[in-house]
Amino acid sequence: MRTVYPEMVPHSVASAHHNWIYRRGVLPVLALLRMGATPQRLAWSIAVGVLIGTNPVLGSTTLLCLAVAFGLRLNVVATQIANHAMFPLELALMVPFIRLGARVFHTAGMPLAPRALVQAARSEPLRLVRQLWMWEWHAFVLWAAIAAVAVPALALALTPLLERLHARVRQHQYPIVPTHL
Predict the structure, then answer these.
(1) Is 178 part of any domain?
(2) Per-residue b/e over 44-66, b at no fewer than 16 CB within 10 Å?
(3) Element (H or E) spanning 174, and its range?
(4) Nearest in space to 51 (alpha carbons), one of 135, 180, 157
(5) Does residue 181 register a pLDDT over 60?
(6) How many domains does the chain have?
(7) How far is it, in rounded angstroms, from Cα 6 to Cα 124?
(8) For the segment 136-179, what is each residue's pLDDT rounded down to a tens digit?
(9) Are 52 and 80 in contact (CB under 8 A)?
(10) What sign has the CA pseudo-torsion 51, 57, 61, 63?
């Protein structure tokens, strides 16, 4: 009996059987495993992408992921997939990181009311910009401290899962047969 892989099925049929997360997250990881990526390297790549993807400084994640992936010789594709999957979580965690940063560093809290921000922008725009940078910097420092612990923990948790997935991929892998025969 011939094994049918999702990439062999027309997109319309595949989309009826798999949800968005499976198609955009799991299938690319399966493809990377089939192309020879090791489970350990993929685990570290995904962990780095997930944690950098939750970085509270908006607009910095893609470049930071690329720099870290190249610097540590991680899988850039896996890192970027995980990074971009974290965007909603990045938005959700931005304000809590800023608030926690203000508490830890004993600075004034960020006014979240739109009127207060608009008033500060009109009356003292330079001071507001300095405060925004300070809040972002404090949030980033806290995030970096958490990420330094969470990346290895997440990579260690993902490694056995990816090793099992890799074993299944190798078990079901079929030889490539030339089509002209």
Answers:
(1) no
(2) bbbbbbbbbbbbbeeeebeebbe
(3) none
(4) 157
(5) no
(6) 1
(7) 57
(8) 999 999 999 999 999 999 999 999 999 998 888 888 765 444 45
(9) no
(10) negative
143 touches 101 (CB < 8 A): no
Q: What is the spatial distance between Cα 63 and Cα 153, in angstroms, rounded to a whole number?
A: 23
Residue 177 lies in a domain: no
Residue showing tokens 């979580």:
89
In a domain? residue 17: yes
Q: Is the pLDDT reported for residue 93 higher than 50?
A: yes
Distance, C-alpha 119 to centroid of its chain: 35
pLDDT score of 9 more than 80? no
Domain residues for 145? Answer: 6-172
Do residues 130 and 18 make contact, with C-beta atoms less than 8 angstroms apart? no
pLDDT digits (tens, 9 = 90+) for 36-70: 889 999 999 999 999 999 999 988 999 999 999 99
Residue 1 lies in a domain: no
- This prediction has a pTM of 0.76
